[in-house]
Fold:
Amino acid sequence: MIDFIQQLKYRNETLFYFGLICLGLAFTFLLLTKITSKQVYSVNPWFKPFKFAFSTFLFAWAMAWYCYYLPSFNINSYNWTVIILLGFEIFYIAFQANKGQLSHYNISTPVYSALYSLMALAASAVTLYTAYIGFLFFKHDFPNLPIYYLWAIRLSIIIFVLFSFEGFAMGSRLNHSVGALNDNSNWFIVGWSKTVGDL
Structure:
């Protein structure tokens, strides 16, 4: 594990530290779920920023590892796109959690509607940039990588892109549940519905 951490830091120090910050934030948000009684759609509001911070940690470290293999790739541009845009999302989601209000699907005021739209644009930009990286993994040859390993990278990026854009389906409906209004009958942490469909 220590060797992996050292290698990851060598490959992309910027995303390595951003991932660490996100991991620290995730544990902070998880702690906050234990010391607040606020509820949004029957769920503690700090679970959402926890999920986003932890998933961003995993994403940042995965892409830090993958992009190292790409020849002549402007990694700094990608790094700062991820940091600025996903950092904005985490900040806004945490800001709304602290107020006990929705971040996603919140169009109750023009300001909240605009910020919700900005989150969608930020997520879309990161997803499209990552899709381009996926394209590069198909375009280039990687003779030093085992074929199964190369396909694992390709498929993981494809899966990420496809399911990221599922957010458009939820956003257009202002609802993640199918057959109820944002039912959070509470699969542990993820908050998926146990009683109806869930996007």
